[in-house]
Amino acid sequence: MTDKKNVLVFRALPEDQLARLQAAHHVTVADPRKEPEAFGAALGTANGLIGSSYNIDAALLDAAPQLKVISSVSVGIDNYPLAELHKRGIVLCHTPDVLTETVADTVFAILMATQRRVVELSNLVREGRWTKNIGEEFFGTDVHGKTLGVLGFGRIGQAVARRAALGFGMPVLYHSRRPVDLAAQAPELQGRATHTPLDELLSRSDIVLAMLPLTDATRGMIDAGFFARMKPGASFINGGRGATVNEAALLHALDHGTLRAAGLDVFAKEPLPADSPLRTHPRVTPLPHIGSATHETRHAMAELATTNLLQVLAGEKPTAPYDTAAA
Ligand code: DGY
User: Fold this and answer.
1) How far lies 31's CA from each of 36, 51, 65, 293, in Å?
2) What's the gap in Å between 96 CA and the centre of ligand 1?
């Protein structure tokens, strides 16, 4: 007797991880964006789904009556209908921890690039416009010693704060519902990171970093009022989720307010639409959602997601479940 289950892979996995799944289960690989028919056909008998970057809704779950587990190759779970999954008893797993340091590296890279105008000035060289010594009009703004305000002080927010405080001597202010127990979670940030009310954080920070998950509470929360309360001449960095920002308000703050610059790895709609002014705005450094995109980390995420899926299908507790009951 076989207890092989049906696994539907909806975003390409590295070969070694696909092989782990194939050794244990019947596996179909079908990307719904490229092969909607094959994906739809496999859903009806799928016991497990694994993939990322695809919106799964209640209608899709209706078409997957055998589904027991969704294993997301991401830490963010905003593509999944949490209450529906909970109601249907479908386990959701994700990939925390393995990407923390890499996303923090990316965020610090955007922060540096934004303050020092790295991409803009590199393009100046590439395009043959470096014909005389760089003048004041191309100067950047210091990073070291400046105050960093962090919204969303989870694992990644803390990892960025460590880089800022320990590497660049930056005082860190953070805002979260409750103060973080730094002694237990991040002892090296004791005396260096301060829990601060939002308005005070906005008015004191030279650089405001959003590392917020996308929830009903955070959708669009970074709006015109938010930018208006930021310190004049400060910069805004987003490494969390694009839809937490009202992009029209962001553009207005850049063009008509006092926002100096923005560094963005995430957008309300991805890939960024061709007509989005954020693509070419001179004071925006846009990146194509590369927070976790290194060979090592994307492989580690795929490996953890594969392990999670195999564990649930074997009746075991997964390494990294997401608590859908809390939704
Ligand atoms: C995540 O894992 O949620 C990152 O944003 C990469 O998609």
Assistant:
1) 7, 9, 19, 19
2) 9
